[in-house]
Every structure is written in structure tokens, then in C-alpha cells.
Amino acid sequence: MRYLTARKRAEGRGAAGTGTEHHWAMTVSSVGLAFLLPVWLYIFGSALGSPREVVLETFARPFPAIVTALILVVGMRHFAMGATMMIEDYAKGTTRKMLIIGAVSLAWVIAATGLFALARIAL
Amino acid sequence: MADAKRPPARIERPLSPHLQIYRPQLTSITSILTRITGNGVIVAVMLAVWWLLAAATSDSYFALANAVVTSWFGDLVFVASLWAVWYHFLAGLRHLYFDAGHGLEVATAEKLGWACIFGSVVLTVITILLVQ
Description:
The complex is a heterodimer of chains A (123) and B (132).
Chain A: H1 6-10, H2 21-47, H3 52-60, H4 62-90, H5 93-122
Helix pairs in contact in A: 2-4, 4-5
Chain B: H1 2-5, H2 26-40, H3 42-57, H4 59-69, H5 72-99, H6 106-131
């Protein structure tokens, strides 16, 4: 007698090994970024090329600092997951694992560096 | 029922068309561009975060980073990435629309593809004018 239900036996056996979590997480972060990006492009674009005092003054204000922090966290998570998807399509085996680890690490390093810089400027 | 026990004859199935001989279509080009632009933007993000770190650190470090981001190289990276991120933005919205089950007819999908291409160029120009 089989104790597992048909559903339990099928779960996790799809091509991705998981369900739709990856796709849904990308959907959620893309909607968030769709709102954040135009605002952040204006903030960053206006500050780029300015003297240091202007840059420090800009990112010390709450709104630019919070939008930049959100872009870093949500954006780098979105990048890490998107890059993972791309690597999974083109690489396999150990190369795939190493590239995914590299891409995810790069995303976290960028996010941490940006947040550190923001904290130093804003706090 | 001896027939049922015999292994089934191997069926020669056609292979799916390979990428190199597949005729490029607007829908496939706009799809792969979404991936290329999304991943390519990381270069500008690294440059931007380095510039912000330099601003947080010291005058001399900022002078170096500022010289790089305002050089022709910095302009090239940021303008190219600005177009890329706007393209990725529009293509992403198109994906959300597709996911909701709309715009999947070929004629509509192609129109949306052109909208992404031209829209991204227009948004890039508008952004550059706004942040001048």
C-alpha cells in the first residue's frame, strides 16, 4: 500500500524542482521595482556629476536614502534570481553551481556596499 | 499478448529547430533582449555603488570616482545602461501583461515588442533631459 498521495509524489518533480515560487518572487519584485525605478533614476541621475557636498546632501535626505536602499535590496535580489535563471539555462553541473554562487554573492556584495555607503552618508 | 511485452520501437522524432538556424523574429529578439539588458545593467550598478562609496569615504576618493563616472567611459556606460534599464522596465511590464493572459496574439505581441524598443529610446531621452 502506498501511503503517499498522488499529489505528494508529483510535488517537486517538475523541471524546476520547485513550484512557481521563483516566478512569483520575480513578479512581486518586478512590480516593486517598476514603482521604484523611475523615482530612483531621477534622484541618482540628478546627483551624478554633482560636487561631493551636493551628493552627500542628497543621500542624507530620508526620501532619496530610503528609495536607494530599496533599489539596492529589491533590485539586487531581483538580479540574483534573474541571473540564476539565465545561468540555469546555459550552464550545467559544477560550472552552473559556481556561476550561480558567484552571481548571488556579487548581488549581496553590491547591496551591502551600497547600504554601507548610504548609512555613512545618511546617519 | 506477446506484443505488449516487446520493447516499443524507437521513434525518430524531429529535433526542435536549433537557435542558429531559427529565423529571428521580433518576439524572440525582444525576449532575449530582456535577459541581456537585465543582466547587463549590473555593470552600471557596480559603477554607481562604487561612486556612492567614494562619496561616503573622502574628497580624494570622490574626485577619482567622479572623474571616472563623468568621463566618456562613464557617460557611455550610464547612457547605455539607462536605455537597457528602460528597455528591461517596459519588457517586464509586457511580461506582467502576458502573465495576466493578455496580448498573446502574434500581431499584438509584435506591436508590444516595437513599443518596448521605441518606448525605451523615448524614455532614455526624456530621462537625460530631466536630469541634465
